[in-house]
């Protein structure tokens, strides 16, 4: 029996930790030229909490459902706008991209390499086969920069599955998704 699953480690100290939320906040400011509202800020802090207890790197189904827990919590706290804000940060669970979608993806474009490398110590599966920790971080960042040129139409996890594991993602990317504008208030 595993004491700590990949997602729990990720939320506590890895790539879905509070540092990720901070980088998402910085990305938000860069993209939208304003700070999020108080309720949006709380949602940014909990948007990836659903990785907790999941082996998200090994099981795509678990990754696909990661937004649900944070969305349910945000729904209890802020109603439908909170739920939609978090559920729409990825395209597994929602056809509509929320305002959180782009800062969440762009965070990997601006994330410091030292932090991305440090994630590989907590989450060694993030190291690409036959590569160093540094090379793995740089390659993922480059892939996300390229992805940004295509409106982030490819999920970061899909990039991981294809490039690190040679797998075809199970779930098609919904590239025609639109931003849900009802959550701005």
Please give a structural write-up.
By secondary structure, this protein is an all-alpha fold. The protein has one domain. It is 56% helix and 2% strand. It has 10 helices and 2 strands; from the N terminus they run ααααααβααααβ. The chain has helices spanning 6-13, 18-32, 38-46, 60-64, 67-78, 80-87, 101-110, 113-122, 133-148, 156-165; strands at 96-97, 178-179. The chain has a two-stranded parallel ribbon. It is globular and about 45 Å long. The mean pLDDT is 91.
Report low-confidence residues grouped into runs of 5 or more. none
Mean pLDDT: 91
> Which class best fits the helix and strand makeup?
mainly alpha
Distance between the termini: 45 Å
Proportion in helices? 55-70%
What tags apply to this protein structure?
single chain, 185 residues, mainly alpha, two-stranded parallel ribbon, 56% helix
Task: Describe, in short, the structure shown.
This protein is mainly alpha-helical and 185 residues long. It is built from 10 helices and 2 strands, in the order ααααααβααααβ. It has one domain.
Secondary structure topology:
Elements: H1 6-13, H2 18-32, H3 38-46, H4 60-64, H5 67-78, H6 80-87, E1 96-97, H7 101-110, H8 113-122, H9 133-148, H10 156-165, E2 178-179
Helix pairs in contact: 2-3, 2-7, 3-5, 5-6, 7-9, 8-9
């Amino acid at each position: 029996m595993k004491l700590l699953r990949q997602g729990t480690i990720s939320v506590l100290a890895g790539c879905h930790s509070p540092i990720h939320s901070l980088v998402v906040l910085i990305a938000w400011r860069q993209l939208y030229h304003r700070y999020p509202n108080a309720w949006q800020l709380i949602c940014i802090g909990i948007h990836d909490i659903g990785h907790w207890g999941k082996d998200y790197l090994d099981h795509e189904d678990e990754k696909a459902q990661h937004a649900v827990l944070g969305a349910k919590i945000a729904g209890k706290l802020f109603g439908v706008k909170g739920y939609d804000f978090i559920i729409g940060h990825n395209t597994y669970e929602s056809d509509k991209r929320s305002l959180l979608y782009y800062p969440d993806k762009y965070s990997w474009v601006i994330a410091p390499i030292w932090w991305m490398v440090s994630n590989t110590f907590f989450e060694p599966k993030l190291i690409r086969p036959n590569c160093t920790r540094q090379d793995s971080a740089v390659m993922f960042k480059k892939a996300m920069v390229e992805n940004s040129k295509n409106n982030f139409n490819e999920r970061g996890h899909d990039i991981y599955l294809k490039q690190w594991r040679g797998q075809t993602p199970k779930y098609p990317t919904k590239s025609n998704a639109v931003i849900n504008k009802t959550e701005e208030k």
